[in-house]
Amino acid sequence: MDYEATGSLKFGGCASYKVTIFYSSLYAIGDIVFEKKKAQKGILRKHCIKEVQINSVQETPKYMDTFNAFFGESELITYDEALLLIRAAISQAEEDLEDHMINCS
Q1: How do residues 23-76 score in pLDDT, each as one tens digit?
Q2: CA-angle at 72, arms to 68 and 75, nearest 5°
Q3: Burial of 10 by CB count in 10 Å (0-12 exposed, 13-18 middle, 19+ buried)?
Q4: Residues 78, 82, 85, CA angle at the centre, nearest 5°?
Q5: Which residues sit opposite 4 in a β-bridge?
Q6: Which of 34, 84, 94, 101 is the most buried (most CB within 10 A)?
């Protein structure tokens, strides 16, 4: 997976300086991502990243979507990963249904 890096560094005359720490994040502002938990249940829930916030203590990014909900990096996945999880959930549900139908007859 590629990480997106953001930050800045500004230096001025004699003793004036400004240092900004660079952090890297997996998703950038404007990226379309999907909820991992919902995909595992067979639901495709799309989110657009509106803001990336970094906690300076933990240095883990939190992503805010357009509905102002916050997500961690581990809670979001790409479209391809979501499709794989949804297909697995659907095939598991079909197997469970077949087992249930066998037990009913």
Answers
A1: 788 899 999 999 999 999 999 999 999 999 887 777 788 999 999 999 999 999
A2: 100
A3: exposed
A4: 145
A5: 25
A6: 34
